[in-house]
Amino acid sequence: MLNPISLAFKKAKNEKRPALLTYTVAGDSSKKQSLEILKAISNYADILEVGVPHNTPVADGGQIQTSSYRAIKNGIKMNDIFKIVKDFKTSKNSKPIILMGYYNMIFQYGENNFLKKCKKSGVNGLIVVDLPWPENKIFSKKCKKNSINFIQLLSPTTSNERLKSITKDSHDMIYYISMLSTTGGKLKVSPNKILANYNKIKKINPNKNCVIGFGITEKTISKFKNTDGLVVGSQICKEITRSLNNRQNPVINVSKMVSKLRKKIS
Amino acid sequence: MKLKKGIPVIDQGDKLGFWGGKFGGNFVPETLKKPIEDLEIQFNKLKNDKNFIRERDKYFKNWIGTPTRFIKLNNLTKHVGGAQIWSKVVSDANGGAHKIYNATVHCLLAKRSGKKVIIGDTGAGYAGKMLSMAAKKFGLKCKIFMGAKDIKRQQPNVKAMKKNGADVIPVYSGSQTLVDAVSECMRFWVANCDTTAMCVGSTVGPAIFVRICGWSTSQISRELKVQLINQFGKVPKKIKLYNCVGGGSSSFGFWNEFMDYDKKQVEFIGVEAGGPAKSKRHAAPLTYGSKIGILHGAAQYVNQDSDGQIEETESISAGLDYPGISPLHCFLKDTKRARYTAASDEEALKAYQIVTKYENLRPSLEPSHAFSVAIKEAKKFSKNTIVIINSCGDAYKDRGILEKKLGKKYVKSN
After folding, report:
1. What are the DSSP calls for A33-93, one per residue?
2. Residues A28, A36, A46, A60: which is the catalytic one?
3. Do both B178 and B140 map to the same domain?
4. Active site includes A87?
5. How many domains does chain A divide into?
6. Is B194 touching A (CB cutoff 8 A)?
7. What are the pLDDT digits (tens) for B193-232?
8. Residue A74, min C-alpha distance to chain B (Å)
9. Do B183 and A107 count as a contact with CB atoms less than 8 A apart?
């Protein structure tokens, strides 16, 4: 049986489109609201990345930082995040969930405890921004044992040799960082160049589902239709901030945005 | 966990960059793996390259002005009554603090790798000031990331950076101090690592930055060893080296050459920032038993909550106001080579008053922390004990704070 993440990719492939992955921060702007946002966007997205907010992020741009600080200020704790995932997973339209964050949060929870809790609450995958290969070898094996996808990251600076080794050690999904940037940067590389790198990765192992993230927005998403999957994060976080500033309901606005994103790649 | 003899501490990490198997490492985004590896290859080659060392020494001597003075504080010794109190006046160095060594080495490396821009973080403003000086000297463009709170409290150094042509970029996230400046600087590097070199301002960050900084500041103890032998004919039987510890760059540099001596002969005492006496907040993770966590790419003892969020610190001294501590110091603590303690804001201010009353020396608030503990302990030592404090920064940058806390007479002659 395919795991839920692979299944989501397969389903999208059958519909001849890339899978749509969204990123929102757990607890932004409140525990309740972030759960509502997840429920609403899972009507359109295929896989939901849930950000674990951290207060010294080394790879996040302004939009995600704003969301993270807002969530932390509102008191979000690791156990609340697991609760949000669990509640989401029992909702009727639930989709695979990937937690994305920084290693210290896992380290403090204890790797084994963390994975146990992931399993219990229904987390399907993990992206750990600051635990690169080969440092992640042991942890990624532990994830596999617990049927949790450890998602390796690749970037434009990754050497060919590393590309091969990392792909070999990856599970069902790989995340290609489109350009040298923190999250939310403007796309400063041509889509063709990004796709060339993407194809290079696919050539190494066509069976791995490779998604592209960083710089993907309403404006740019349609240029990457022939890929396995695309991640939109900062633009969604920005929409939450904008909605809050305008005293509008972020759940409705974000849901509209994700529906539009989906249409653009369908 | 054991310290090895005969091998520089900066080279005692394992393959993945961990000291003692658990401190340091490279917890960085994939994008930074390559630039970090490039820097590792470059540094490992150059640190044993005679031409490079000659070039470094040339700039250290002619531009930074080595050696800095090693002086006896006669009046203070008499006042305290106990051990002989000496000081290594590292604030003699060009720019007024030890940060110049690391900044110079990073600019030399950046030049050699063809980078045109160098970026750096700063807390007290010294790392930033020195990087701006060195960048100017070597024809590099310079950007300095600095917490908005620190910009307010360390104006003299901010002015100096701007005068040297650097862009000073205020950081408004989080506590708006050094921890946020380092994060922002690393984020900028993630987005620009193809054209830009990064200088981490202390012995913190991914392992290679810890090593480069430690290698650079070790100039301090190299000089001191020679000066001790010139003064006493040999390294005396009982020496105590007091140094403030924020990130840990000056203390590591002050101690490195004496690492292999028995600690009964050469003892290392690191003084962290205890914060205001009435506050629970501090910047002393080693003294107050903080847990190991990951901060800025390295595993270290760090102030954090049970979830792993980094806690805000509080200290009168911007240069020590950092929630973590160099992996090298975690290693020296756990191998028991060095002893760590803390001084409060008030104790540091009092020490500043005492030192400036008896001596023609104006240590900044950072080394004033070290003076505070040294003065207290020196009373109990015998006359043949040599207490040495690294006066690693000059108080000029603190004039605003000193005037506010102690009144005008403490800053007038600066």
Report:
1. HHHHHHHHHTTT-SEEEEE---SS-SS--HHHHHHHHHHHHTT--HHHHHHHHHHHHTSTT
2. A60
3. yes
4. no
5. 1
6. yes
7. 999 999 999 999 999 999 999 999 999 999 999 999 999 9
8. 14
9. no
Structure-block tokens of residue B139:
């024809």
B-chain residues within 8 Å CB-CB of A131? 27
Contacts B192 to A, Cβ<8 Å: 180
Q: Six-digit token pair at B39?
A: 């820097």
From the list B225, B217, B10, the residue with the least C-alpha distance to B93 is B217
Chain B residues near residue A69 by CB distance under 8 angstroms: 173-174
Q: How far apart are the first and last CA of chain A?
A: 26
Residue labelled with tokens 């010794």: B77
Contact list in A for residue B295 (CB cut-off 8 A) is 56, 104
Q: Are residues B145 and B129 in the same domain?
A: yes
* Three-class SS state of B406: helix
How far apart (Å, rounded) are the C-alpha atoms in residues B200 and B209? 6
Domain membership of residue B205 as a residue range:
28-60+98-214
CB contact at 8 A, A211 and A227: yes
Q: Measure the CA–CA gap between B325 and B209, rounded to whole angstroms.
A: 13
- Is the Cα dihedral A106, A112, A113, A115 positive or negative? positive
Question: Do the domain assignments include residue B8?
Answer: no
Active site residue A169: no
The two three-digit tokens of residue B339, written as one number: 């002893």
Would you state the structure tokens that stand for residue B189, as one six-digit string?
A: 């590097």
d(CA B201, CA B131): 9
Give yes or no: residues B191 and B121 share one domain. yes
A159–B contact, CB cutoff 8 A: yes
Residue whose token pair is 């500033």: A245
Contacts of A54 (CB under 8 A, 6+ apart): A68, A101, A102, A104, A105, B308, B309
CB contact A103 to B (< 8 Å): yes
Q: Which residue of A has its CA nearest to B196?
A: A180
Range of the domain at A225: 4-265
Residues A146-194: tens digit of each pLDDT? 999 999 999 999 999 999 999 999 999 999 999 999 988 889 999 999 9
Per-residue pLDDT at B174 exceeds 90: no
- Min Cα distance B168 → chain A (Å) is 18
Average the pLDDT over B76-99 and give the result: 97
Return the CATH number at B378.
3.40.50.1100
What Cα–Cα distance (Å) separates residue B71 from each residue in B84, B251, B350?
A: 11, 18, 21
**What CATH number does the domain containing A121 carry?**
3.20.20.70
Give the least confident one: A108-117, A184-193, B218-227, B383-392: A184-193
Of A56, A153, A182, the CB nearest to B30: A153
